[in-house]
Design goal:
Elements (H helix, E strand, L loop, with lengths): L12 H10 L3 E5 L3 H14 L3 E6 H7 L1 H17 L7 E8 L2 H9 L4 E4 L6 H16 L4 E6 L4 E3 L2 E3 L7 H11 L3 E4 L16 E2 L6 E2 L5 H10 L4 E4 L7 H9 L12 H8 L3 E6 L1 H17 L6 H24 L8
Helix pairs in contact: 2-4, 2-12, 5-6, 7-8, 9-11, 11-12
The protein binds zinc ion (ZN).
Protein backbone atom coordinates (compact mmCIF):
# COMPACT_ATOMS: atom_id res chain seq x y z
CA UNK A 1 0.00 0.00 0.00
CA UNK A 2 1.44 3.35 -1.10
CA UNK A 3 -0.22 6.54 0.09
CA UNK A 4 -0.17 9.38 -2.41
CA UNK A 5 0.67 11.85 0.33
CA UNK A 6 4.03 10.16 0.75
CA UNK A 7 4.69 10.81 -2.94
CA UNK A 8 4.02 14.55 -2.57
CA UNK A 9 0.76 14.39 -4.53
CA UNK A 10 -2.54 16.03 -3.58
CA UNK A 11 -6.18 15.05 -4.13
CA UNK A 12 -8.64 17.25 -6.02
CA UNK A 13 -10.83 18.51 -3.15
CA UNK A 14 -9.27 21.87 -2.29
CA UNK A 15 -8.10 22.38 -5.84
CA UNK A 16 -11.68 22.14 -7.18
CA UNK A 17 -13.17 24.27 -4.41
CA UNK A 18 -10.71 27.06 -5.25
CA UNK A 19 -11.32 26.65 -8.97
CA UNK A 20 -15.08 27.12 -8.59
CA UNK A 21 -14.62 30.20 -6.41
CA UNK A 22 -11.99 31.63 -8.74
CA UNK A 23 -13.90 30.95 -11.97
CA UNK A 24 -11.27 28.79 -13.63
CA UNK A 25 -10.73 25.09 -14.37
CA UNK A 26 -7.89 22.69 -13.61
CA UNK A 27 -6.20 21.12 -16.64
CA UNK A 28 -6.30 17.33 -16.74
CA UNK A 29 -3.71 16.15 -19.23
CA UNK A 30 -3.31 12.49 -20.12
CA UNK A 31 0.18 11.04 -20.17
CA UNK A 32 1.85 7.76 -20.94
CA UNK A 33 5.45 8.67 -21.69
CA UNK A 34 8.33 10.75 -20.38
CA UNK A 35 8.18 13.54 -22.96
CA UNK A 36 4.50 14.24 -22.25
CA UNK A 37 5.18 14.26 -18.53
CA UNK A 38 8.14 16.62 -18.84
CA UNK A 39 6.11 18.99 -20.99
CA UNK A 40 3.13 18.94 -18.60
CA UNK A 41 5.23 19.59 -15.49
CA UNK A 42 7.27 22.34 -17.14
CA UNK A 43 4.15 24.08 -18.45
CA UNK A 44 2.45 23.85 -15.04
CA UNK A 45 5.47 25.15 -13.13
CA UNK A 46 6.20 28.00 -15.51
CA UNK A 47 2.59 29.18 -15.42
CA UNK A 48 2.21 28.40 -11.69
CA UNK A 49 -0.79 26.18 -12.35
CA UNK A 50 -2.10 23.19 -10.41
CA UNK A 51 -2.34 20.18 -12.70
CA UNK A 52 -3.94 16.75 -12.96
CA UNK A 53 -1.87 13.96 -14.50
CA UNK A 54 -4.30 11.49 -15.99
CA UNK A 55 -3.70 7.85 -16.71
CA UNK A 56 -6.25 5.74 -18.55
CA UNK A 57 -6.50 1.99 -18.25
CA UNK A 58 -4.89 1.76 -21.67
CA UNK A 59 -2.02 4.05 -20.65
CA UNK A 60 -1.50 2.00 -17.52
CA UNK A 61 -1.20 -1.14 -19.60
CA UNK A 62 1.07 0.62 -22.10
CA UNK A 63 3.48 2.24 -19.66
CA UNK A 64 3.37 -0.19 -16.72
CA UNK A 65 1.63 0.76 -13.48
CA UNK A 66 4.76 0.70 -11.33
CA UNK A 67 6.71 2.87 -13.70
CA UNK A 68 3.82 5.35 -13.92
CA UNK A 69 3.66 5.70 -10.17
CA UNK A 70 7.35 6.49 -9.93
CA UNK A 71 6.99 8.88 -12.86
CA UNK A 72 4.31 10.78 -10.94
CA UNK A 73 6.52 10.86 -7.86
CA UNK A 74 9.33 12.04 -10.14
CA UNK A 75 7.05 14.74 -11.52
CA UNK A 76 6.69 16.26 -8.04
CA UNK A 77 10.46 16.28 -7.54
CA UNK A 78 11.02 17.65 -11.05
CA UNK A 79 8.58 20.51 -10.34
CA UNK A 80 10.56 21.34 -7.20
CA UNK A 81 13.81 21.24 -9.14
CA UNK A 82 12.27 23.68 -11.62
CA UNK A 83 11.73 26.11 -8.76
CA UNK A 84 8.23 25.31 -7.49
CA UNK A 85 8.50 24.45 -3.82
CA UNK A 86 4.87 23.49 -3.38
CA UNK A 87 3.55 22.05 -6.62
CA UNK A 88 -0.06 20.83 -6.65
CA UNK A 89 -0.06 17.66 -8.71
CA UNK A 90 -2.82 15.03 -8.81
CA UNK A 91 -2.34 11.52 -10.14
CA UNK A 92 -5.74 10.51 -11.47
CA UNK A 93 -7.16 7.34 -13.04
CA UNK A 94 -9.16 8.26 -16.14
CA UNK A 95 -12.19 6.06 -16.94
CA UNK A 96 -11.73 3.34 -14.37
CA UNK A 97 -14.12 0.58 -15.40
CA UNK A 98 -14.20 -1.65 -12.32
CA UNK A 99 -13.94 -1.48 -8.54
CA UNK A 100 -10.82 -3.68 -8.71
CA UNK A 101 -8.98 -1.28 -11.06
CA UNK A 102 -9.86 1.73 -8.89
CA UNK A 103 -8.81 -0.09 -5.73
CA UNK A 104 -5.53 -1.09 -7.32
CA UNK A 105 -4.81 2.54 -8.26
CA UNK A 106 -5.71 3.80 -4.77
CA UNK A 107 -3.36 1.16 -3.33
CA UNK A 108 -0.60 2.18 -5.73
CA UNK A 109 -0.49 5.88 -4.85
CA UNK A 110 -3.12 7.55 -7.04
CA UNK A 111 -4.66 10.58 -5.33
CA UNK A 112 -7.85 10.55 -7.39
CA UNK A 113 -9.78 7.96 -9.39
CA UNK A 114 -12.63 8.01 -11.85
CA UNK A 115 -15.17 5.21 -11.87
CA UNK A 116 -17.07 5.33 -15.13
CA UNK A 117 -20.33 3.46 -14.76
CA UNK A 118 -22.09 5.69 -17.27
CA UNK A 119 -22.76 2.78 -19.64
CA UNK A 120 -24.52 0.81 -16.88
CA UNK A 121 -28.19 1.06 -15.89
CA UNK A 122 -28.59 4.00 -13.47
CA UNK A 123 -28.95 1.97 -10.25
CA UNK A 124 -25.89 -0.13 -11.10
CA UNK A 125 -23.87 3.03 -11.77
CA UNK A 126 -24.93 4.36 -8.35
CA UNK A 127 -23.97 1.12 -6.58
CA UNK A 128 -20.58 0.79 -8.29
CA UNK A 129 -19.64 4.44 -7.76
CA UNK A 130 -20.68 4.27 -4.10
CA UNK A 131 -18.52 1.20 -3.56
CA UNK A 132 -15.46 2.96 -5.04
CA UNK A 133 -16.16 6.11 -2.98
CA UNK A 134 -16.39 4.11 0.25
CA UNK A 135 -13.03 2.49 -0.42
CA UNK A 136 -11.20 5.56 -1.74
CA UNK A 137 -12.38 7.94 0.97
CA UNK A 138 -10.73 5.80 3.65
CA UNK A 139 -7.46 7.01 2.19
CA UNK A 140 -8.62 10.54 1.37
CA UNK A 141 -8.54 9.76 -2.35
CA UNK A 142 -11.13 11.73 -4.31
CA UNK A 143 -13.56 10.08 -6.75
CA UNK A 144 -15.04 11.26 -10.04
CA UNK A 145 -18.19 9.60 -11.37
CA UNK A 146 -19.88 9.89 -14.75
CA UNK A 147 -23.50 10.39 -15.63
CA UNK A 148 -24.73 10.59 -19.21
CA UNK A 149 -22.93 9.04 -22.13
CA UNK A 150 -20.46 10.89 -24.33
CA UNK A 151 -20.33 10.19 -28.02
CA UNK A 152 -16.98 9.11 -29.40
CA UNK A 153 -14.62 6.47 -28.21
CA UNK A 154 -13.85 6.36 -24.51
CA UNK A 155 -11.27 3.84 -23.38
CA UNK A 156 -13.26 0.59 -23.49
CA UNK A 157 -16.52 2.49 -23.38
CA UNK A 158 -18.21 3.70 -26.52
CA UNK A 159 -21.54 5.18 -27.43
CA UNK A 160 -23.26 5.96 -30.69
CA UNK A 161 -25.18 9.02 -29.60
CA UNK A 162 -24.95 11.82 -27.14
CA UNK A 163 -27.23 11.40 -24.18
CA UNK A 164 -27.09 14.64 -22.27
CA UNK A 165 -26.96 14.24 -18.53
CA UNK A 166 -30.36 14.61 -16.89
CA UNK A 167 -29.96 17.44 -14.33
CA UNK A 168 -32.62 15.82 -12.13
CA UNK A 169 -30.44 12.75 -11.75
CA UNK A 170 -27.29 14.66 -10.77
CA UNK A 171 -28.48 15.60 -7.28
CA UNK A 172 -29.69 12.06 -6.60
CA UNK A 173 -26.48 10.53 -7.94
CA UNK A 174 -24.16 12.88 -6.05
CA UNK A 175 -26.05 12.49 -2.78
CA UNK A 176 -26.33 8.72 -2.90
CA UNK A 177 -22.79 7.97 -4.09
CA UNK A 178 -20.87 10.66 -2.19
CA UNK A 179 -18.65 11.21 -5.24
CA UNK A 180 -16.46 14.31 -5.16
CA UNK A 181 -17.00 15.32 -8.76
CA UNK A 182 -19.04 14.27 -11.72
CA UNK A 183 -18.35 14.11 -15.44
CA UNK A 184 -21.48 15.18 -17.27
CA UNK A 185 -22.45 15.09 -20.90
CA UNK A 186 -23.28 18.45 -22.47
CA UNK A 187 -22.07 17.82 -26.00
CA UNK A 188 -18.32 17.26 -25.72
CA UNK A 189 -16.95 13.96 -26.96
CA UNK A 190 -13.75 11.97 -27.11
CA UNK A 191 -11.19 11.85 -29.89
CA UNK A 192 -10.25 14.07 -32.82
CA UNK A 193 -13.47 13.43 -34.74
CA UNK A 194 -16.03 14.83 -32.39
CA UNK A 195 -18.62 15.75 -34.98
CA UNK A 196 -19.63 14.76 -38.48
CA UNK A 197 -19.31 17.58 -41.04
CA UNK A 198 -23.08 17.48 -41.59
CA UNK A 199 -23.60 18.34 -37.89
CA UNK A 200 -21.57 21.54 -38.35
CA UNK A 201 -21.95 24.82 -40.16
CA UNK A 202 -19.28 26.69 -42.10
CA UNK A 203 -17.88 29.87 -40.61
CA UNK A 204 -18.01 32.35 -43.51
CA UNK A 205 -14.97 34.24 -42.20
CA UNK A 206 -12.59 31.29 -42.06
CA UNK A 207 -14.27 28.59 -44.14
CA UNK A 208 -13.83 26.19 -41.22
CA UNK A 209 -16.49 23.87 -39.85
CA UNK A 210 -18.09 25.03 -36.60
CA UNK A 211 -19.67 22.32 -34.42
CA UNK A 212 -23.02 22.63 -32.64
CA UNK A 213 -22.80 24.59 -29.35
CA UNK A 214 -22.47 22.88 -25.97
CA UNK A 215 -25.67 22.45 -23.96
CA UNK A 216 -25.05 25.20 -21.43
CA UNK A 217 -28.70 24.97 -20.37
CA UNK A 218 -27.98 21.50 -18.95
CA UNK A 219 -24.94 22.85 -17.09
CA UNK A 220 -26.95 25.79 -15.73
CA UNK A 221 -29.68 23.46 -14.49
CA UNK A 222 -27.11 21.28 -12.71
CA UNK A 223 -25.51 24.34 -11.07
CA UNK A 224 -28.91 25.53 -9.91
CA UNK A 225 -29.83 22.20 -8.35
CA UNK A 226 -26.44 21.58 -6.75
CA UNK A 227 -24.60 24.86 -6.19
CA UNK A 228 -20.86 24.49 -5.71
CA UNK A 229 -20.73 20.87 -6.89
CA UNK A 230 -17.65 19.98 -8.92
CA UNK A 231 -18.36 19.30 -12.58
CA UNK A 232 -15.93 17.72 -15.04
CA UNK A 233 -15.82 17.95 -18.83
CA UNK A 234 -14.33 15.08 -20.79
CA UNK A 235 -13.47 15.11 -24.48
CA UNK A 236 -12.56 18.78 -24.48
CA UNK A 237 -9.79 18.99 -27.03
CA UNK A 238 -10.15 21.73 -29.59
CA UNK A 239 -8.32 19.92 -32.39
CA UNK A 240 -6.23 22.94 -33.46
CA UNK A 241 -6.42 23.35 -37.21
CA UNK A 242 -2.71 24.26 -37.37
CA UNK A 243 -1.74 20.78 -36.13
CA UNK A 244 -4.22 19.03 -38.42
CA UNK A 245 -2.82 21.01 -41.36
CA UNK A 246 0.76 20.30 -40.32
CA UNK A 247 0.08 16.56 -40.01
CA UNK A 248 -1.55 16.49 -43.45
CA UNK A 249 1.19 18.67 -44.98
CA UNK A 250 3.86 16.21 -43.86
CA UNK A 251 2.24 13.04 -45.14
CA UNK A 252 -0.55 12.43 -42.63
CA UNK A 253 -4.18 11.86 -43.41
CA UNK A 254 -6.63 13.41 -40.99
CA UNK A 255 -9.93 14.20 -42.62
CA UNK A 256 -12.47 16.58 -41.12
CA UNK A 257 -11.11 16.37 -37.59
CA UNK A 258 -13.29 18.69 -35.49
CA UNK A 259 -13.03 19.69 -31.81
CA UNK A 260 -14.69 21.97 -29.27
CA UNK A 261 -14.14 25.69 -29.93
CA UNK A 262 -11.94 27.26 -27.26
CA UNK A 263 -14.33 30.12 -26.52
CA UNK A 264 -16.93 27.56 -25.42
CA UNK A 265 -14.38 25.95 -23.10
CA UNK A 266 -13.43 29.36 -21.71
CA UNK A 267 -17.08 29.92 -20.87
CA UNK A 268 -17.34 26.47 -19.24
CA UNK A 269 -14.17 27.05 -17.18
CA UNK A 270 -15.78 30.10 -15.55
CA UNK A 271 -18.73 27.98 -14.36
CA UNK A 272 -18.97 24.99 -12.00
CA UNK A 273 -16.79 23.07 -14.44
CA UNK A 274 -13.55 22.71 -12.49
CA UNK A 275 -11.71 20.01 -14.47
CA UNK A 276 -11.29 19.97 -18.22
CA UNK A 277 -9.79 16.89 -19.88
CA UNK A 278 -7.45 17.37 -22.80
CA UNK A 279 -5.76 14.43 -24.52
CA UNK A 280 -6.23 14.52 -28.31
CA UNK A 281 -4.67 17.99 -28.71
CA UNK A 282 -1.43 16.78 -27.17
CA UNK A 283 -1.44 13.72 -29.45
CA UNK A 284 -1.90 16.01 -32.44
CA UNK A 285 0.90 18.37 -31.33
CA UNK A 286 3.27 15.45 -30.85
CA UNK A 287 2.38 13.80 -34.15
CA UNK A 288 2.67 17.08 -36.08
CA UNK A 289 6.13 17.81 -34.67
CA UNK A 290 7.43 14.29 -35.29
CA UNK A 291 6.08 14.20 -38.86
CA UNK A 292 7.73 17.54 -39.60
CA UNK A 293 11.15 16.27 -38.55
CA UNK A 294 10.71 13.01 -40.47
CA UNK A 295 9.68 14.88 -43.62
CA UNK A 296 12.35 17.57 -43.45
CA UNK A 297 15.24 15.45 -42.17
CA UNK A 298 14.70 11.93 -43.50
CA UNK A 299 18.23 10.91 -42.49
CA UNK A 300 17.55 11.64 -38.79
CA UNK A 301 17.36 8.59 -36.56
CA UNK A 302 18.20 9.91 -33.10
CA UNK A 303 14.87 9.77 -31.18
CA UNK A 304 15.85 12.84 -29.17
CA UNK A 305 15.90 14.84 -32.41
CA UNK A 306 12.21 14.17 -33.08
CA UNK A 307 10.85 13.55 -29.58
CA UNK A 308 12.57 16.75 -28.38
CA UNK A 309 10.67 19.01 -30.82
CA UNK A 310 7.51 17.02 -30.01
CA UNK A 311 8.03 17.76 -26.32
CA UNK A 312 8.53 21.47 -27.04
CA UNK A 313 5.35 21.59 -29.12
CA UNK A 314 3.33 19.89 -26.37
CA UNK A 315 4.70 22.29 -23.74
CA UNK A 316 3.60 25.20 -25.92
CA UNK A 317 0.15 23.66 -26.24
CA UNK A 318 -0.23 23.00 -22.49
CA UNK A 319 0.81 26.57 -21.66
CA UNK A 320 -1.68 27.92 -24.18
CA UNK A 321 -4.49 25.89 -22.59
CA UNK A 322 -3.57 27.00 -19.07
CA UNK A 323 -3.12 30.68 -19.94
CA UNK A 324 -5.72 31.26 -22.63
CA UNK A 325 -8.47 28.69 -22.09
CA UNK A 326 -8.65 27.36 -18.51
CA UNK A 327 -7.29 30.35 -16.60
CA UNK A 328 -5.50 28.21 -13.99
CA UNK A 329 -2.26 30.21 -14.12
CA UNK A 330 -0.80 32.04 -11.12
CA UNK A 331 -2.63 29.91 -8.58
CA UNK A 332 0.45 28.46 -6.85
CA UNK A 333 2.56 30.35 -4.34
CA UNK A 334 5.84 29.10 -5.82
ZN1 LIG B 1 -13.12 10.78 -20.93
Amino acid sequence: MVNYKDLGLVNTRDMFAKAIKGGYAIPAFNFNNMEQLQAIVKAAVETKSPVILQVSKGARNYANQTLLRYMAEGAVEYAKELGCEKPEIVLHLDHGDSFELCKSCVDMGFSSVMIDGSHLPYEENVALTKKVVEYAHQFDVTVEGELGVLAGVEDEVSAEHHTYTNPEEVIDFATRTGCDSLAISIGTSHGAYKFKPEQCHVDPATGRLVPPPLAFDVLDAVMEKLPGFHIVLHGSSSVPQEYVDMINQYGGKLEAAIGIPEDELRKAAKSAVCKINIDSDSRLAMTAAVRKVFAEKPAEFDPRKYLGPARDEMEKLYKHKILNVLGSDNKLSC
